[in-house]
Amino acid sequence: MPEAGPGRRGRRARAAQRAEARSTRVASVPQRRIPTYELLSETELDRLHGHADWILDTKGVEFHGDEEALELFRAAGARVEGVTVRFDPGLAEHLCSTAPKQFDMYGRDGRVVPIGGDNVVLLPAYGPPFVSDLDNGRRYAKLEDFENFVKLTWMSPWLHHSGGTVCEPVDVPVNKRHLDMVYAHLKYSTKPFMGGVTAPERAEDSIEMARIVFGAEYLEDHCVIQGNINVNSPLVWDETMTGALKTYARANQGCVISPFIIGGAMGPVTQPALIAQAHAEAMTGIALSQLVRPGSPMVYGNFLTTMNLRSGAPTFGTPESVLATYAIGQLSRRLGLPLRCGAHYTASKTADGQAMQESADAMEAGILAGTNFVIHAAGWLEGGLVMGYEKFAMDLDHCGMIHRMLAGLTIDDNELAVDAYSEVDPGTAHLGTQHTLRNFETANYDSALADTDSFEQWSDNGALDMQQRANRQWKQMLADYEPPPIDPSVDAALLAFMAERKASMDDAWY
Amino acid sequence: MPEAGPGRRGRRARAAQRAEARSTRVASVPQRRIPTYELLSETELDRLHGHADWILDTKGVEFHGDEEALELFRAAGARVEGVTVRFDPGLAEHLCSTAPKQFDMYGRDGRVVPIGGDNVVLLPAYGPPFVSDLDNGRRYAKLEDFENFVKLTWMSPWLHHSGGTVCEPVDVPVNKRHLDMVYAHLKYSTKPFMGGVTAPERAEDSIEMARIVFGAEYLEDHCVIQGNINVNSPLVWDETMTGALKTYARANQGCVISPFIIGGAMGPVTQPALIAQAHAEAMTGIALSQLVRPGSPMVYGNFLTTMNLRSGAPTFGTPESVLATYAIGQLSRRLGLPLRCGAHYTASKTADGQAMQESADAMEAGILAGTNFVIHAAGWLEGGLVMGYEKFAMDLDHCGMIHRMLAGLTIDDNELAVDAYSEVDPGTAHLGTQHTLRNFETANYDSALADTDSFEQWSDNGALDMQQRANRQWKQMLADYEPPPIDPSVDAALLAFMAERKASMDDAWY
Q1: Which helix (H) or strand (E) segment is B298 a member of?
Q2: Is residue A377 included in any domain, yes or no?
Q3: Residues in B touching A464 (Cβ below 8 Å)
Q4: Is residue A85 assigned to a domain?
Q5: Using CB atoms, which residue from A309, A352, A443 is nearest to B467?
């Protein structure tokens, strides 16, 4: 007896998602309909959380060059001594409690991108100074590459956010770069994005450009831009990062606050210590944001990984980092804030088997850990030094798979194929059943890059490996790109603002 | 205050594992110290289990050409009509109840390989008629390749079982092949293995060769050999498979019973139906084994995957198959039998990014699903048509990672690095701390193939991708291979048995 249950909804949702992805290249943000993976017991989580409190209580965190931060913490009850801020157990968590559990980001075309809850938002890699592709190899990134990756991100149904420094446009002076990057996000895409964080005034410029597009008043209660904030682990905040953080928070815009810890370098070599340290550091950043502006929308982030203990090189997608990701997910749920973790990480120099094995492991871990926000979901190579064109396309396909996985299984009469078993006898193939015909378009994710041809077909088609197929795909995507419309007066205002700001500065190259 | 808790044990265990792996190339079977992932609710599992019972009750399963099986089922209370056997709800599960929850397999050097419980046994791919490597490309497998993969498996600390048809030695007649394969497992390795299943007499030959090595009496209560049994899905058993199954069970040896279902072909296109169908089919095979010999040691297996619904080609490591794997794991725990699932599956023709992304996803799913027995943990390419030398080495490295992941995280004073935080101040690197020195050898899995060098070092070393590095590695492993000792009289007896058996048959090539 068929029923109108979640299965039918699930099927309709998948069909709608697919149709939407085809027509507009903008799939909805996927909802997590699968449980999280619970690695540790509540007792173990208590101990990790308690260890974070112990670190904050006994060692404390240093805030360098930021008297305002020290004063805010002192007024909030922390023990400030020189640049060191120590927190009684429970205080840091308490100071985070005004941050929203979930919030929306907005695109200039009116799209709403929900951050937190059951939503999983995917965005491109952040920060690589190099790019690479099969045709031209590895080279410094330029503004043209930056624009290309903004366009590619806009073209993909599987990325919901335009990212920030998708690569470093090193052909633009360091002190002017943020203007061109923010302009590219606003001009070539309509997805939410991240602005400059390398100086408070660059953060301010970024927000100001968003105000030109969205209206100053709109930004007072709509998050349209974020800053990607890293801690100087272990246990240090510098004035650049707190300056940017305070700027975004003051404007009621968002930040993603991520301790960046390689075990053995910026923290101990054992993962439980790293997890507790990252938890402690992230809480202090979120606490500062809430002291500046209660309710400003923050993401609890982390970037934890391992080190090759013979060479000191960072390593990615490792079993230890996978385990740490699960634990971080559990800890984050104690705060209840949107979680950033997981990514298509790799140390590989090329989009080979190593790259995809490490990326798959790191990404699946984030998904099962309960991530809400995945920076580096596409393009990352060489420990983040390189944005790879082919890797970008390969990661996108895996992002599509993640969408399907998040939808989970629906157990209902249709999915159980009750009618199919009436239609065919044992030993008979199900290829032609009514059930198969009814479901075949929606049952499975249709990979854009996985080759499933026979060896003979594959050979006849040039015996291309995935990287070579991806090379064709990103070029086709760029060729197909059409910019979203923008009001010419808004565009002109953005250009005028940039020209004015650039004219006020000498070029700085470092 | 340091404590003598599981952490110290975990560290010691990891150190011992690593030392053991280095010196003997035989790491212990890893114990799962991480929880399983529970995708579905108990209500959903009830429904899946009930659906399997419904299939067995209303459609039933056909047993072709096996009067003995029909008679055994009739006597056990099933409803037999022609070749169709139908089971009242609960009967199939009841008939499985005499199969052991956990059992040991034994190697000829006395090693014990525990199957079931918290143990995770990894073994090479099974069945490919082709092999490939970077030097000589794709070609039909020969006996020399078979021997090579037995040797490579023996060399690896991360595989605990020698597998069965690691590739098809197509240069040996079909009806004599099993003799050479079993001989290779017994001669070139000491790990447990699988014997012939393509005819009952080939199963009998395989067991007889094991008796020559272990002694006939020993086999009565020691499992040293298994048959890898597939169902002719949907819902059909043929006399070849039941013949082999009964032969192994009668000798109190093991079988791995795996429905092989590609959704849309040998079963419906929707995963929940496949899961229920596979559950139903596996239960009937285990039931038959227990009717032949109660207590014979069986593995509840499955091989479920998806299809490219445009071309009909099987697809692997897909999100749907990952979800199905989690659900199968949950269902298997209702029976409490050793579980076979997960593998380094891929449809790719080469050990590229696609191969490793699909393999990593499929394998991680099996691990979190609670697998005890992983066929195809190394070497699989092209949907199982090809055993790849480079893929084998690449998969081995991931198997090593799996060992580390299964160990989980230990939350104790050492892992929390209590002393490290006393030693260094905020902002100071942890590279030189006592804690780092004490832990750096055991903290992280040390990958044999992942490249983490700088771009410059990597370029200077020839800019090799993982597949090229793997090419060097498997050759080195083969070069380093030394056969385990074997009693010359036993070896002679094996050779005499093979000669006699071969002399009794004409060559058959199909």
Answers
A1: strand B298-301
A2: yes
A3: none
A4: yes
A5: A352
